[in-house]
Amino acid sequence: MPFAIAVSRTTPARGSISTPSLGDGSTSSRQSPATRSSRRTIGLGPNVVALLQDLIEARSIALDGFIFLTEEGNHISRSVYNKAWQHALTQIGLRGVRPYDLRASNISWMHAGGANLPTIMARAGHVRIDTTRRYTAALPDSDKRAQAALRAVRKRYKAA
Fold first, then answer.
1. Same domain, 21 and 83
2. Which of 10, 39, 104, 130 is at 20 to 30 A from 22, Cα to Cα?
3. Which domain holds residue 123?
């Protein structure tokens, strides 16, 4: 799994993992984030938490260490990550997809699924809500979802 993430602590009972945001790909390991805002806690689904817990236990990883490392136990460099990313894309028949594209899609999907902008903003680590708004692209069924949301609100207040 070519993804470097430094873990400061896991809390499987709450289904979250506290991590610094991915840095510039430098080879220094176990480096704290530059600012407090670079550190955030995001919720993870129970399946992801279970997989991470299994990986941590199988590799006897300290909770302040890196989870995803090279086979030699080193920090994953940008070049190693990029090679693994390109290999994965080739395996599934995709071209031209950047890891950052997945982040942008995730933000749009959270918004389309009903998450509010302040929640998405915090999860993405954005300081300004305008940054978050740039990622909230309209998905094909967005207009129908907006109409349904409006009907639901009208119905709720009509009943009151």
1. yes
2. 130
3. 98-160
pLDDT tens-place string over residues 54-66: 888 888 877 667 7
Percent of the chain with pLDDT over 70: 71
Query: Based on the domain organization, do 81 and 105 belong to the same domain?
Result: no
The sheet carrying 39-43 orders its strands as 9-11, 16-20, 39-43
Statement to judge: residues 122 and 158 lie in one domain: yes
What residues contact 43, with CB distance under 8 A and at least 6 apart?
14, 15, 16
CA distances from 158 to 114, 140, 144, 152 (A): 22, 29, 21, 10
Query: If residue 9 lies in a helix (H) or strand (E), which one and from where to where?
Result: strand 9-11
Residues 20 and 54 in one domain: yes
- Is the pTM here over 0.90, yes or no? no
Return the residue matching tokens 């993405």.
Answer: 124
User: Which has the minimum average pLDDT: 1-5, 96-100, 145-149?
Assistant: 1-5
Q: CA neighbours within 13 Å on the CB side: how many for 59?
A: 17
- Cα dihedral across residues 103, 108, 110, 113: positive or negative: negative
Q: Classify residue 3 by its DSSP letter.
A: -
